[in-house]
């Protein structure tokens, strides 16, 4: 009897390990698994709707997404709301502010390889080797993001 419970437990653990949820699910239907993302560069921007500098940098992030990220298969940009929001609120926020890059859904909560920032706006760069740069605090431009990505890739 005990052996059958042990076998059932091991089978259940194996199924759970094989069906691991992604680390971050995005509002565009894709997801990020940090292990699978090794060898690529991920730019993570924290923002909040009440943060004026965050809202001012959104057009720059949209341009970076269109001009750089969409032309580089080894680069990803994602936004994460600093405030807790359900998935519908995140999509409404994206629509309201014309956010054209993917946003992390909050349910399930994203698993990140760094701590949540204490100030906004904050941007992290996860390099191809998994090393995290940041947070880069304050409004970012396409130029500052290009420089940070280049530095992360050269390490």
Automatic annotation (TrEMBL):
CDD domains recorded: TlpA_like_family
Transmembrane regions listed in the UniProt entry: none
Molecular function in Gene Ontology: antioxidant activity; disulfide oxidoreductase activity
Superkingdom, taxonomy of origin: Bacteria
Entry-linked Pfam families: AhpC-TSA
Assigned keywords, A-Z: Redox-active center, Signal
Protein name: TlpA family protein disulfide reductase
Taxonomic source organism: Idiomarina fontislapidosi
């Amino acid at each position: 009897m005990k052996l059958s419970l042990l076998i059932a437990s091991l089978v259940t653990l194996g199924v759970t390990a094989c069906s691991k949820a992604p680390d971050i699910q995005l509002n565009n239907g894709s997801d990020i698994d940090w292990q699978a993302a090794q060898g690529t560069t991920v730019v993570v921007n924290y923002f909040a709707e009440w943060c004026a500098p965050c809202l001012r940098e959104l057009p720059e992030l949209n341009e970076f997404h269109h001009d750089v990220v969409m032309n580089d298969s080894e680069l990803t940009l994602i936004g994460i709301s600093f405030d807790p929001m359900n998935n519908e609120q995140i999509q409404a926020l994206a629509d309201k502010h014309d956010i054209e890059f993917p946003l992390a859904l909050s349910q399930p909560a994203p698993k990140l390889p760094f701590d949540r920032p204490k100030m906004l706006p904050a941007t992290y760069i996860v390099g191809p080797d998994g090393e995290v740069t940041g947070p880069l605090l304050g409004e970012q431009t396409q130029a500052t993001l290009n420089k940070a990505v280049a530095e992360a890739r050269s390490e």
